[in-house]
Write a structure and sequence with these properties.
CATH superfamily of the largest domain: P-loop containing nucleotide triphosphate hydrolases
CATH class of the largest domain: Alpha Beta
Strand content: 5-15%
Number of helices: 16
CATH architecture of the largest domain: 3-Layer(aba) Sandwich
Number of strands: 7
Helix content: 40-55%
CATH topology of the largest domain: Rossmann fold
Strand order of the largest sheet: 2-3-4-1-5
Order of helices and strands: HHEHEHHEHHEHEHHHHHHHEEH
Number of domains: 3
Structural class: alpha/beta
Distance between the termini: 33 Å
Length: 405
DNA sequence: GTCAATTCACATGAAAGAGACCACGGTCTAGTG
DNA sequence: CTAGACCGTGGTCTCTTTCATGTGAATTGACGA
């Protein structure tokens, strides 16, 4: 038995090596890859360049505010433009610094403190992860920036997330920094996925932050095809992709608001699947598999990374679902949840908290929770599970594992 | 039959507490010259 | 004398709890036709 397995393994590795790889450079399909040339974003690149240009004379450029849905190339465009911009600055020895901060990353910016700490880190200095008064962190930041004459371009990606989490005071402080700086100037480029985000801002911040506004409209299917085939040329071996595969990818991605990132992911995963299967080409069906896999991975990942209490709540919901059909309400979930807690020696949380957890699970897209009013019979949430049937098993076993049931 | 009041079962908000981190500064201790 | 171990203090952060307030429609019940 063991022998056979061994042979099989060896065979597998052998055949893997013999097999011609499909990819030549997989990185090109990674979403954080900045290509040599950007397609279909010439207009935006030019606008940013025009706004940024005065900075080369060390005049403070206008702050820019960029909107656009996910996968419309906002980040990549800004990165691309600022890179070129920096190249020139470097050549001429102009003291310009571009700082890119992604506000979505949890470790980076979910509090005012960390946000500023991250900025300081970008300047090559360390600051304790916690423990200092926020005030002090600010002044430390001022000091670093103002140390020498320079111009700083601050790119705040997913700025809406930042404001959602910690409010807009940070932005206010940042936009006002310039008044206090003697040597330096700071220009801000804000990038937001949320189209109406600016309207929710305090008007003072809004006016100073969005001196220039730029909108990135979604790519249409044709443009995505163009982008994909362009990248596929460097990413894949010649003829590794069957006719129409890229079109299908694009169509999938265009279906939900022209998300190019999603299209790239799809193509990459499809390629991986094809390669693993030992297929010579990426076929149509690999795209479908890829889509299923991406979705599944997201879900499993989302469930797995939750804290224990979330698992308990989710487990409670799942076990109700498995017993009967129809909608579930908060009170019922809470009762079952308490039982689960006793079973697993977990300290039960209050209903208030569980209610929040249900809300968060909904936000994660693991469950569907809609608050409804049932008139005389109160107000509650209608909870349903949106996980596909074959996923339920998998999720359940993860939960059981995590809960040590 | 109509219409406002009531009522339910939570949702949603705000504030405050607990416990974990962490830096910093002071004190103690042991090892060294 | 000095480096390192070991507190205590003061700060932040996250997760919770407590207390309060909000909510939307089914139901009730008064009222008038």
């Amino acid at each position: 038995m063991a022998d056979k397995n061994e042979n099989e393994l060896v065979d597998y590795f052998e055949s893997f090596l013999k097999q011609k790889p499909l990819f030549t450079n997989k990185n090109v399909l990674q979403s954080d890859y900045t290509p040599e040339s950007l397609k279909h974003r010439e207009v935006q690149i030019n606008s940013i360049a025009q706004i940024l240009a005065p900075a080369l004379r060390l005049e403070k450029p206008s702050n820019i505010f960029i909107y656009g849905k996910t996968g419309t190339g906002k980040t990549v465009t800004v990165k691309y433009t600022t890179e070129k911009f920096l190249e020139v600055a470097k050549k001429r020895n102009i003291p310009i610094k571009v700082i890119y901060v992604n506000c979505k990353l949890k470790k980076v910016a979910d509090t005012e403190y960390r946000m500023i700490a991250q900025l300081i880190k970008e300047f090559g200095q360390e600051i304790p992860a916690t423990g200092l008064p926020t005030e002090e962190v600010y002044s430390h930041f001022f000091k670093i920036v103002d140390e020498k004459k320079q111009l700083v371009i601050l790119v705040l990606d997913e700025i809406d997330q930042l404001v959602e989490k910690i409010g807009d005071e940070v932005l206010y402080s940042l936009t006002r920094i310039n008044a206090e700086l003697k040597n330096s100037q700071i220009g801000i480029i804000g990038i937001s996925n949320n189209l109406i985000f600016a309207q929710t801002l305090d008007s003072r911040i809004k006016s100073s932050l969005s001196q220039e506004e730029l909108v990135f409209s979604p790519y249409n299917a044709l443009q995505i095809v163009d982008i994909l085939s362009h990248r596929a040329k460097t990413a894949f071996e010649k003829d590794a992709i069957k006719q129409g595969v890229i079109q299908k990818c694009a169509a999938y991605a265009a279906r939900d608001h022209g998300d190019a990132r999603r299209a790239l992911d799809l193509l990459r995963v499809a390629g991986e699947i094809a390669e693993r299967e030992g297929s010579k080409k990426v076929e149509m069906k690999h795209i479908d598999d890829a889509e299923a896999k991406i979705e599944k991975d997201c879900m499993v990942e989302a469930v797995e990374t939750q804290p224990k209490q979330f698992h308990a709540v989710l487990y409670a919901i799942m076990s109700i679902v498995s017993k009967r059909d129809g909608f579930i309400h908060t009170g019922e979930v809470y009762e079952v949840y308490k039982a689960v807690c006793i079973q697993t020696n977990l300290r039960p949380l209050t209903q208030r908290r569980v209610s929040d957890i249900i809300g968060e699970l909904d936000l994660l897209g693991i469950i569907n929770a809609k608050t409804i009013s049932k008139g005389r019979y109160g107000r509650t949430r209608d909870i349903s599970v949106i996980i596909a049937k074959e996923m339920v098993e998998k999720i359940n076993s993860i939960l059981k594992n995590k809960l040590e049931l």
